[in-house]
């Protein structure tokens, strides 16, 4: 699969249908960015994952934008809060455009989720729930094992994101 190719898939939900479109190398102007996530690869080639209190699953560090934050600033803040280090050499992999439609086909929500690749600055000892944040664990895994932790990487758009990550390394 070409990692510069736009990939689309549709999922039937209780509310209607949601279309996910992977758009490599771009952020869509004038479309709200609802979430950001980063694949942060350390010098050993391992990717950072975090786990929140009360959760069994690990996720990429990331989350929602605060106020008028731009996606890259939000990524830096989320990494400091969750992974307890600052990401550097941040590069945009692309966005997942999300189009949610109701049962009648009317768009009820339209936004994008940005995906980045980066590397960590100085990594220090991890402190669970530091500064009252919810993160209780930080691990580093080989890219080949990411699909064991992050279920959406098995979808068509997830595979495209994974391939974009691998080609960026």
Keywords:
single chain, 169 residues, mainly beta, Nucleoside Triphosphate Pyrophosphohydrolase, six-stranded mixed sheet, two-stranded antiparallel sheet, 2 helices, 8 strands, 15% helix
Could you characterize what this model shows?
- The protein is mainly beta and 169 residues long.
- The chain has a single domain, classed as Nucleoside Triphosphate Pyrophosphohydrolase.
- It has two helices and eight strands.
- The longest helix is centred in the C-terminal third of the chain and has 13 residues.
- The protein is globular, with a radius of gyration of 16 Å.
Fraction in beta strands: 35-45%
Task: Determine the N-to-C terminus distance.
Answer: 17 Å
What is the CATH class name? Alpha Beta
- So, the CATH homologous superfamily? Nucleoside Triphosphate Pyrophosphohydrolase
Structural class: mainly beta
Q: Count the strands? A: 8
> What sequence of helices (H) and strands (E) makes up the elements?
EEEEEHEEEH
Helix content: 10-25%
At CATH level 2, the architecture is Alpha-Beta Complex
Main beta sheet strand tally, sense and closure:
6 strands, mixed
Tell me the overall shape.
globular
Write the layout of secondary structure elements.
Layout: E1 7-12, E2 16-24, E3 33-40, E4 47-52, E5 62-63, H1 71-82, E6 87-102, E7 107-120, E8 135-141, H2 156-168
Parallel strand pairs: 3-7
Antiparallel strand pairs: 1-2, 2-6, 3-5, 4-8, 6-7
Quick description:
This protein is mainly beta. It has helices at 71-82, 156-168; strands at 7-12, 16-24, 33-40, 47-52, 62-63, 87-102, 107-120, 135-141.
